[in-house]
């Protein structure tokens, strides 16, 4: 009997089992599929050895028993192929119901193959001594090859067709596994004396272990917690099963450990980790350097454990509890408020970016309303991407009236974007999102270019317009290349800089002030003028006017309204106007909506009026028609 190769396969499998079981695991569905494949492969090798033994003792054993053992070995070969197919299906089919339905088809096919194996006859070939087993052959063996090849074809077909659903590492690992097995089967089919298929199965399992199923790949080396990749796979399985879980996120401030010595910091960290690892009914993941996720299978388990977790952190760490770490806590009682694990992680980032909501105890309850706000932001971000890529960006113009010249002498350019249905989306919906994700730079550049083209193509001076105002966002003001880029655009359209006025806000002047002033210096040198927009909002300070080289100050609508509604506000606005006029700067009153407001602002000596009293923001065509009509009316 030549069973040395098979025995080597058994040894490989037992070593694999030893290393596999000694590590902590996340209980993933792929782990369960791997264990099934491992058991079937081990059974395959065992039956391979047993079949050689019983054939060698064929004369001493019942013929039915010998056939049963030999055919069981062939059946386990089909089982190995079926396990590989089931392993691939874990990724391919998104829901538990779909997975079970498709795998059942393959299981029935394999079962039919096994029935053929057990029903059809099998023959044995011995060596010249009449005792050494060389191989089995016959219809039963042929049917094994036919059905196994059929399952292999399905495996490779799915890996090609559904490659976007299967991770590249899984495709590679399963491809190698089945490749080794297929090559060994082909070699054994052509040379029946080489009994290597069972050993090839064990080699395939080693490949699968090393490439995918080594539990150590799911562990963070520094902490011993499960890592980000393990968390993603674990959470995905809940979403596939449409089953909810509860999530407690611990966010550590980057500065919390700065006061600690290195050894102390390491001791505190390990003490926290040891505590977290002992939490019952939970899996703990290190998602980032400053973020730990604790996943509970249900809300009841989460809320039972959370009080103890909070209490433990309050006690402090170290022998005397002298070291205190106060993290932020984000609790999501039901993961089903989002659609998938990617959205879940995005929601955590979204909450952290908007951390103004953290209360004094550093705790946030993540509910469906917060998820809805996150989805709204994602949709808006995608809308922005589409608008920029497909040029759905439009510029509207709101006329500005001169109380001295008694006509419209300028306009403010206001950005609008369209959705897929062609409907106009107001800036209040998308500006904050654009500033947060950085798209405001590209959006602002597009608006400025459209304004320059508008100024050039329509010769705005013929309409009596002196300039067009263009807003700069906080992010744009902090962009070092702003002046260079804007000058290039004006040179591209050969626009006289006298026709451009850029608006900055008070908040913009607070952020990256040095960069802003450098940009303003270069643009003023080129010939552009500046306005200070939204004066009277936020942290208003007349020092801004002194610091910023602006020619115009725009009083915000809220400030104007306060003037008419609050007696004290009148004194504030009177003082502001007196100081602004004393510096030889012009004033624009925004948000003027009634004749009374207009008359009052005019009497106060306000130079320019902007608001719905005269006109709402208009499209390019509507604006030119409005200005032309105003010109004709003034002449008459």
Can you tell me about this structure?
- By secondary structure, the chain is α/β, with parallel strands linked by helices.
- It has three domains: 4-215, Rhodopsin 7-helix transmembrane proteins (Rhopdopsin 7-helix transmembrane proteins, Up-down Bundle); 219-366, Alpha-Beta Plaits; 392-635, TIM Barrel.
- It has 23 helices and 16 strands.
- The chain has helices spanning 4-21, 29-56, 63-92, 96-119, 139-161, 168-190, 197-213, 228-240, 262-277, 299-315, 341-353, 368-389, 427-437, 440-458, 474-477, 482-493, 506-510, 513-526, 542-547, 557-565, 567-582, 595-603, 620-635, and strands at residues 123-126, 133-137, 246-251, 282-288, 291-296, 328-332, 363-365, 393-402, 407-418, 424-425, 467-471, 500-505, 529-535, 552-555, 586-589, 608-610.
- The strands form three sheets. The chain has an eight-stranded mixed barrel, surrounded by seven helices. It has a five-stranded mixed beta sheet with strand order 4-5-3-6-7.
- Strand 9 (407-418) and strand 10 (424-425) form a beta hairpin.
- Helix 2 (29-56) runs antiparallel to helix 7 (197-213) and helix 3 runs antiparallel to helix 4.
- It is elongated and about 120 Å long.
- The chain starts with a helix and ends with a helix.
Number of helices: 23
Shape: elongated
Oligomer: single chain
Number of strands: 16
Largest sheet, if any? Answer: 8 strands, mixed, barrel
End-to-end Cα distance, whole Å, is 116 Å
